[in-house]
Design brief:
Layout (H helix, E strand, L loop, with lengths): L22 H45 L5 E10 L2 E9 L5 E8 L10 H5 L1
Antiparallel strand pairs: 1-2, 2-3
Length: 122
């Protein structure tokens, strides 16, 4: 049988555990990784928030125009503890300043669906 070349075995005193770093260096490396991860994720989070907010505003304006013809405006807000959970809430704003919940738009609001005449009367 052919034995492998002795140089391919490696040294007997070879420590395969890798280098041992000090606690200070480990902490600095962890902080650098967390800062880099945050720098990668922050633009993504801000982009998703901005897109969801503008979609919620557009959908809310359509819902308020369909459901509350006396409203002077519309307002959206992101609520973590809404009735159906976290998501965008659509409010109509009356001339007196009072607000009425019109629709719960969800986490990532989409285009509003058309409303039939029989649903509007109900």
């Amino acid at each position: 049988m052919i034995e492998p070349h002795p140089e391919l075995h490696g040294a007997d005193d070879d420590d395969s555990r890798g280098p041992v770093y000090g606690e200070r260096r480990r902490r600095a490396l962890r902080i650098a990784v967390l800062v880099a991860l945050g720098a990668l994720l922050l633009p993504l989070v801000l982009s998703v928030y901005g897109t969801a907010h503008s979609a919620a505003q557009r959908a809310c304006a359509v819902y308020v125009a369909q459901f509350d013809t006396d409203a002077t405006g519309a307002r959206v807000s992101f609520e973590l503890f809404g009735r159906t959970g976290a998501g965008w809430q659509c409010y109509s704003v009356a001339a007196s300043g009072s607000e009425t919940l019109i629709a719960e738009l969800g986490l990532l609001p989409g285009a509003p669906r058309p409303i039939d005449d029989d649903e509007r009367d109900a």
